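Notebook, bench 3.
Goal today: get a predicted structure for ABC transporter permease from Streptomyces synnematoformans so we can plan the truncation constructs. The sequence was checked against the plasmid map this morning, with no discrepancies at the termini. Length recorded as 321 residues. Pasting the sequence as submitted so the record is complete.
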Amino acid sequence: MADLTLRRALPADRERVLRWLQEYGVYLGVALLLLVNIAFTPNFLSAENFRTQAVQVAPVVIVALGMALAIGSEGVDLSVGSVMALSTSLLALYMGYGPWVALIVAVVGGAAVGLVNGSLIAFIGVQPIVATLALMVGARGLALVLLPQLEDIRDPGMATLGSGEFAGVPYVVLIAAALAVVVGFVVRRTTFGRQLLAIGDSRPAARLAGLPVRRVLIVVYVASGVLAAVAGFLATARLSASDPTSLGNLMELSAITAVVVGGTPLTGGRVRIGGTVAGAVLIQLLTATLIKHDLEPSWTQIAQAVVIILAVYAARERGKR
């Protein structure tokens, strides 16, 4: 009897551990990396280092917010990196009209890519991975047609946005934080957020319930495109240059990693905005740690792969029960 009770207790304990890891594992990972760096990385606690890490992770956070919406709807957006490249090309072309006009044009460009993505998925029934893969290639190509080479951005407003700060916090970080709050509110407190999660949980059931499935999907991908365009704008401001060749390269993978590690399941039906932000911070800290200790960049990719596998395994094991 005692052995039977023990055998029944072990799976239950394993389930609790896996559930805890999925809910809070990303925060534990961030805490452990902070402790490791505090102990072994010189000058890690300096204000300049924290500022650098925050500025570098801000565009990833913004792109990951849109990716979280797409994954929450049981989709994915592989075009976000190319949208960043398109955004920086449009900025360079329209900066002569002023930074606000250039920003509006860049955002409209991102929204247009998202509209095409959403329309292919919602009206034609193309799989999200296929539709966004097509736009991933097409938007990058268009960006390079518009701006074949790097171009310096010499605008005081852009320079201020890229390097300025308020109360010691960089503008780009404040913008990323504000967008995270807005997206979190939309997901948790609005009808649209509840509809998105219902569609991600079961699209056929959502249709039978009379939910506006097509409209929600289009809004999701337009929002993802807009957020990617904003990230491209901020990255351009920080670099003071438009470079569609390299800007946004592999950003879609970083965003997916942040979302998955943050606890949002690839099967949809759930979006964890706080976890997504923490996931982006985790990947940034991991990358910075390896770089500061003179390890090759390839080790960063290997480490990210291990983190993704662990996160997906935890989600899969939990889903079995």
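Residues 87 and 106 are 5 Å apart (CA to CA). The chain has a mean pLDDT of 87.
Flagging this for group meeting.
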